[in-house]
Amino acid sequence: MKVLALLLLACTAPTFAQGQDCPHSSEVAARHLYGLWRAEFQGQGHVGTLLLEKHTVYAESVSGTINRNGERRPLAGDVEDGDFTLEESADGVHIAATWLGEVVEGSCGREIRGTWKAERDPQTHAFVLRKQ
């Protein structure tokens, strides 16, 4: 009986490859971005936490918020062919900063690297987003 139970379990349990959603960087879609992300700027460490969810209007986009030490700002963006774009707003209407990056190959859509730029600041900051 134990052998039969183990055999059934082995036949019905998904393998690692079947149970793991690990898209190529060019295959990452909005649904892979849903969830909690940790944002780090080069030389500054942790700068905020992002929560990305399904956009209520645009099906292939995300929306959400960034939390920087209790200050929350709305976000909206998308990913296409591994290219990531996210717009950050201070007032929910105007763009205050832009995140431009690429999904890191081999990260299964869980790491994005690029540059962050505030609208009125010529300087850019290298960032890393890691899904939590």
Comma- or semicolon-separated keywords:
132 residues, mainly beta, 8-stranded antiparallel beta barrel, 3 helices, 8 strands, 14% helix, disordered N terminus
Which SSEs are present, and which pair or pack?
Elements: H1 2-12, H2 16-19, H3 30-33, E1 35-41, E2 45-54, E3 61-68, E4 71-80, E5 83-89, E6 95-103, E7 111-118, E8 124-131
Antiparallel strand pairs: 1-2, 1-8, 2-3, 3-4, 4-5, 5-6, 6-7, 7-8
Task: Write a compact overview of the structure shown.
The protein is built from three helices and eight strands, in the order H-H-H-E-E-E-E-E-E-E-E. By secondary structure, the protein is mainly β. A hairpin with a 7-residue loop joins strand 6 (95-103) and strand 7 (111-118).
Report the strand count: 8
Alpha plus pi helix count: 3
Identify low-pLDDT runs.
1-19
Helical proportion, percent range? 10-25%
Q: Helix-strand pattern, N to C? A: HHHEEEEEEEE
